[in-house]
Design goal:
Blueprint: E1 4-10, H1 16-27, E2 35-41, E3 49-53, E4 57-61, H2 63-66, E5 69-73
Antiparallel strand pairs: 1-2, 1-5, 2-3, 3-4
Amino acid sequence: MGARAVIDQLHTPANADDREVLLRLIEIGFLPGETVRVVAKARTGREPVAVRLGGQSTFALREREAALVRVRPVATEGAA
């Protein structure tokens, strides 16, 4: 929660419905190299999760949608 990450890659699903979801994510800016940050979560075991994309736009993602986006953490300033 609150930690920054960079989109590393997008998972290519075999399911046609999930491919449509992936295309929508790409259209709104979920692309490799973009920074993301989780800004809010629903209660444990519930959806969605609120993600800030590029420091400007916030999107609510369901687990199914978030599973298509692979991220890597960004080292925070002052970390060794």
